[in-house]
């Protein structure tokens, strides 16, 4: 699977190339921000017309990760559906695929800011889930510890052989782990933005996705201009 192993809160976790998190000792697979039905929601709201295959692509990726890791438990960290209509409009074939993946597994839907609330697909719906040293929730809390969350869709900007590349990434420090968005049509927030740099502690790393994920230091925002320079430019 070319997974990237790393230590967090005394446990060995694996970040998969897809952006899923695997906890082998617990037989647990965790994904964040599936955003099923995003293409449909964008079309309904007058946004760009995207090919309506994002849910199928995301389900295919999820099916592969489930096959390769053989979990007993799956946690979806919120924003699994792009809105209420997206949840209602999956269609019978997609619902059958999803419920087929869920069969025989302990499945938890963590509620996110896009989610419509409890859904009629089985599994359990929770605001957060505490397992061992970890708390699984959608949005990181400033005082959180042992926290696994999503929401921000972090992405990295890296330079390789003179080319600048953008890749989804996870963010890791000694207190929290923020997973990348898993859904096919999800955008992202560069990890040097203040929303993320303010959450992550000194020495934080970005775990950059690719065929073989890699660990790199998390960049920080450039130093602010002095007050004198700011006032002279306005």
Folded structure, characterized:
The protein has 234 residues and is of the alpha/beta class. It has six helices and 16 strands. The protein has helices at 38-44, 54-69, 84-88, 92-102, 194-197, 227-232; strands at 4-8, 11-15, 21-23, 28-31, 73-76, 106-110, 124-126, 128-131, 134-137, 147-149, 154-160, 163-172, 176-178, 189-190, 205-208, 214-217. Strands 8, 9, 10, 11, 12, 13, 14, 15 and 16 form a nine-stranded mixed β-sheet that branches. Strand 3 (21-23) and strand 4 (28-31) form a beta hairpin. Helix 2 (54-69) runs parallel beside helix 4 (92-102). The longest helix is centred in the first third of the chain and has 16 residues, at 54-69. The chain is globular, with a radius of gyration of 18 Å. The N and C termini lie far apart (52 Å).
What topology does this entry show?
Blueprint: E1 4-8, E2 11-15, E3 21-23, E4 28-31, H1 38-44, H2 54-69, E5 73-76, H3 84-88, H4 92-102, E6 106-110, E7 124-126, E8 128-131, E9 134-137, E10 147-149, E11 154-160, E12 163-172, E13 176-178, E14 189-190, H5 194-197, E15 205-208, E16 214-217, H6 227-232
Parallel strand pairs: 4-5, 5-6, 6-7, 9-10, 10-13, 11-14
Antiparallel strand pairs: 1-2, 2-3, 3-4, 8-9, 11-12, 12-13, 12-15, 15-16
């Amino acid at each position: 699977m070319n997974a990237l192993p790393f230590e967090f809160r005394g446990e060995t976790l694996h970040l998969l190339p897809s952006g899923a998190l695997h906890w082998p000792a617990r037989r647990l697979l965790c994904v964040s921000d599936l955003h099923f039905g995003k293409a449909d929601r964008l079309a309904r709201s007058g946004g760009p017309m995207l090919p309506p295959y994002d849910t199928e692509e995301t389900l295919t990726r999820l099916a592969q990760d489930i096959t390769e890791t053989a979990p007993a438990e799956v946690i979806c960290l919120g924003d699994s559906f792009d809105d209420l209509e997206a949840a209602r409009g999956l269609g019978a074939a997609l619902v059958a695929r999803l419920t087929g993946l869920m069969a025989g597994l302990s499945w938890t839907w963590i509620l996110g800011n896009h989610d419509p609330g409890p859904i009629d697909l089985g599994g359990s719906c929770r605001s957060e889930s505490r397992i061992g040293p970890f708390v699984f929730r959608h949005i990181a809390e400033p005082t959180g510890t042992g926290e696994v969350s999503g929401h921000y869709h972090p992405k990295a900007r890296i330079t390789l052989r003179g080319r600048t590349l953008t890749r989804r990434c996870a963010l890791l420090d000694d207190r929290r782990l923020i997973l990348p968005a898993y859904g096919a049509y999800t955008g992202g927030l560069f990890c040097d933005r203040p929303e993320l740099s303010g959450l992550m502690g000194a020495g934080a790393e970005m775990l950059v996705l690719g065929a073989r994920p890699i660990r790199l230091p998390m960049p920080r925002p450039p130093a602010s201009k002095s007050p004198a320079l700011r006032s002279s430019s306005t």
